[in-house]
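Exercise: predict the structure of this protein bound to fe (ii) ion.
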Amino acid sequence: MAAPNVRGFFDPVTATWTYVVWSDTDTQKRCAVIDSVLDYDMPSSRTTTTSADAVITFVRQKQLQVEWILETHIHADHITAASYIKEKLGGKIAISKHILDIISTWVPIFQTADDTPADGSDFDHLFDNDEEFTIADLKARIIHTPGHTPADTTYIIEDTAFVGDTIFLPDVGSGRCDFPGGSAEDSYDSSRKLFALPDHYRIYVGHDYPPEGTRGPECMTTVGEQKSKNTRLHTGIDKNSFVAQRKADDTDKDVPALLLPSIQANMRTGRFGAAVNGIQYVKLPVNKL
Ligand SMILES: [Fe+2]
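Solution:
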């Protein structure tokens, strides 16, 4: 079996993990980039590419060819660098077909139908539930793991799962479920889909928020470790208890600082709105959230 190599890149500003996945046995040296970050300063509405450029430099140093640029979901806390990476390195940008639910919810709120295709065609590919595909000589498939958002997807690449915000490291627990279309019930069910994988499978998380003063950011655990140790979702916790705790955790949570520009741009693979007089814009609905 070909084994996925994984290199993680941590963005301390948004606590996001970006991954490059490749195989040593692939003669064409193809790779995937998962959940990249375009740095965005909200007060100045200015983008920079420090985070994405670190990924691009690594890919070039390893002489890898980007085959896929994958998104686990429409992020609400950072803007994806998918379009920027495609421009620099090529590759197909892909996400779950459930993004169509996100587009139909949010485009009317933003009034961005003019430059956000309703069929998700800014993406090169929309994955069906359980679709199988390959990254180099690695076998990959997706499973739908909603809860944090209705469109969350887990990519299972050989014995390694990239779960986005479906579940976090054992001492952190699970992702918030209070965004539109989020569901604590679905989040629990999605964790059980992951727990159906073999115990030795590796899990790479989309964010890490280490409890204050405990450890630095980490990114990997295993299915077995999650089943026994996840503070919110271990196998001894029933659905009702999880849902009650998740709802309590989500009560009065702050809206992420970059939620509005992130969702708006991420539905277009990280592009801002169509340029007017050479300038792109973000539309912010007032008194809507
Ligand atoms: Fe997220």
